[in-house]
Amino acid sequence: MQNLTLEDVAERAGVSRSTVSRVINDQPNVSEGVRDRVWKVINETGYQPNVAARSLASQRSYMIGLVLPHSVSYLFTDPYIPHLIQGVAQSCNQSDYTLGLFHASSKEDEKKMYPRVSRAGLLDGVILQAGHHGDPLMDRMIDSDLPLVFVGRPFQDENVSYVDIDNYDGAYNAVSHLIKLGYRRIATIAGTELSTVGIDRKQGYIEALRDNDLTVDEDWVVEGDFTEMGGYQAMEALLPNRPQAVFAASDIMAIGAIRAIRNAGLEIPDDVAIVGFDDLPVANMSNIALTTIRQPISRLGSTAVEMLIEMIHNGSKLHNRIILSTELIVRDSCGANQELKYEAKEE
Amino acid sequence: MQNLTLEDVAERAGVSRSTVSRVINDQPNVSEGVRDRVWKVINETGYQPNVAARSLASQRSYMIGLVLPHSVSYLFTDPYIPHLIQGVAQSCNQSDYTLGLFHASSKEDEKKMYPRVSRAGLLDGVILQAGHHGDPLMDRMIDSDLPLVFVGRPFQDENVSYVDIDNYDGAYNAVSHLIKLGYRRIATIAGTELSTVGIDRKQGYIEALRDNDLTVDEDWVVEGDFTEMGGYQAMEALLPNRPQAVFAASDIMAIGAIRAIRNAGLEIPDDVAIVGFDDLPVANMSNIALTTIRQPISRLGSTAVEMLIEMIHNGSKLHNRIILSTELIVRDSCGANQELKYEAKEE
DNA sequence: GTGAAAGCGCTAACAG
DNA sequence: CTGTTAGCGCTTTCAC
């Protein structure tokens, strides 16, 4: 029943194998009558073309890979990877591509990753989550001749295609929002410089201050490492400088910072205002509703698939980049919803 | 360079195609010398067997599918699915199987799911996350002739293989723990009866009470729907009955319940003790550290892969079931860490 | 518009 | 131990 071949269908429909193939692949040069007759047989028999055979003959697998290097494993702990996967899966469903998932669970796994992903005849293209600086998998993938789209800006961003969140702009808006609210002594808990995410968000902070004629004080920039603990410690380091507001480069770090602020007996946003980045669900669930930057992660994934499929079809070696914009979500932690303590800057 | 075929390697090594095939597949009947010579050529040339061709000839794709029906989409919002995926991916890496991910993003997607998953020549077997009662995908998958392993006990659990958490036992232990602490008036916020998870955990609650000669009062069993809001409302309904303790069938519902308890001006665990289930990270991050049941989700995934691969190899139609045990994590919300208000039951 | 024929690159009997 | 020979089920020229 499942073991029907093109040949069988052809026989039952009284045509040749090639004709059935044309019908299935929706190709021209088949008369209406024959087409209908063949479809009838196909539907009646429940015939399904064999993927392996098709793949071998056409040199196309209609399968793409989503590759997650080990250096981004920590992203499994927040909703980033799940949302990304949902976006990618949805887009694959729409385009009728099969999704292969490659996750390096350990450093050792990662070594075998490239051979597995690049196996001849397996994938038509790959989506690679950009990892930390120096991640070996990235360079190898770039050098392969498979169509490739990065999710997130890779360090080496020349001659590659990628989709990314506008981290710079998001941070810029977050800090500008604080400035408009009247805060002047604005610190940041930056992410690690090992990722472009950390770099871009920090740059947004810096430029926002500059564009508003505020000086960028090195004492107000402390690096967290995108963890709750990192945020806590960074905030502890920041507190003696008495910042009026702080921009945390991730919600998780913001939550750590909030803990530190409260431990010091200070109130949010009255004593210190805070804005995060990511808009995790927890941002709205913690004791103080967190003002933050929302990013379209699922769309990041679906866009990557669309770019990749276009590359596969056009065989284009052109390198595109798409930057998705973010959205400022104003809640309570920035102090916008209360009386201003400081003189607001008028536009 | 990538386009080498077996034939090419054979020629360079001065042997026949079959010999190279034997070497690659680690089959016997090849002399040491020849074997070495062939490996040398393979390594030098970077030859990779073509997956599609191998698949077609051997009728094996060395790829398995992880299928997530739409009815479990909500599990993406907590760490369940990510952990499951990690476990599955890790096990696939070890066995050198490719992992195909099939996630139905919508009801419409779900209709096209079965044809996509069951395409001839695509998968050697599938792992299916058990969904709600009546999920159409489950029945169709069971009827297909693909090797199949469920993650989570399906409703129709005859003649199928599955791996599951010991939900019954976990709930039983959670409630027994409360009983040992001296509580007598113990309520439960049960999950939905649409899932076996909800059913099994509720049953564990009931049996624990019975085994300790406590009556099961219908007023003490309120159904949440595994959401924070559901937990909140269930607790509101429960409060008038003045329970001393409550077992929530999930941490998310426990968090909702905690909110309701506090809204009523009551203290945890002094006025009401609470135990959850799942051990989400948030269980340890909220204001009151939640006593809960930890479950090995990642191992659930890797075990499923192991079972499936065994079925594929042995072609066995035997149906196995593996139940993984849980662990009681005692924190503050159950009151174990403070003076007991009620007379503790001695063993 | 349709069919015949030649592969796609590999595995797996079957001889030797 | 090794090579020869058929396929696996489909796509894709190329004739007609």
End-to-end gap of chain A: 72 Å
The main pleated sheet of chain A reads as: 6 strands, parallel
Helical element count of chain A?
13
CATH topology of the largest domain in chain A: Rossmann fold
Counting helices, strands and paired strands, the structural category of chain A is alpha/beta
The CATH class of the largest domain in chain A, by name, is Alpha Beta
Keywords summarizing the entry:
homodimer, 347 residues, alpha/beta, Rossmann fold, six-stranded parallel beta sheet, four-stranded parallel beta sheet, 13 helices, 43% helix, disordered C terminus, DNA-binding
Your description of this structure?
The structure is a homodimer of 347-residue chains. A six-stranded parallel β-sheet of chain A has the order 2-1-3-4-5-11, with helices on both faces. In chain A, strands 7-6-8-9 form a four-stranded parallel β-sheet, with helices on both faces. Chain A has 347 residues and is an alpha/beta fold. Chain A has two domains: 133 residues, Rossmann fold (3-Layer(aba) Sandwich), CATH 3.40.50; 146 residues, 3-Layer(aba) Sandwich (Rossmann fold). In chain A, helix 10 packs across helix 11. Chain A has 13 helices and twelve strands. Chains A and B meet through helix 4, helix 5, strand 2, helix 6 and helix 12 of A and helix 4, helix 5, strand 2 and helix 6 of B. The structure holds a DNA duplex (16 and 16 nucleotides).
Set out the fold topology.
Two copies of one chain form a homodimer.
Chain A lengths: L5 H8 L3 H8 L7 H14 L5 H8 L4 E6 L11 H16 L2 E6 L3 H11 L7 E5 L6 H8 L4 E4 L9 E5 L1 H14 L5 E5 L5 H16 L9 E3 L4 H11 L6 E4 L2 H13 L9 E3 L5 H5 L6 E3 L2 H18 L6 E4 L2 E3 L18
Parallel strand pairs in A: 1-2, 1-3, 3-4, 4-5, 5-11, 6-7, 6-8, 8-9
Antiparallel strand pairs in A: 10-12
Helix pairs in contact in A: 1-2, 1-3, 5-13, 8-9, 10-11
The structure holds a DNA duplex (16 and 16 nucleotides).
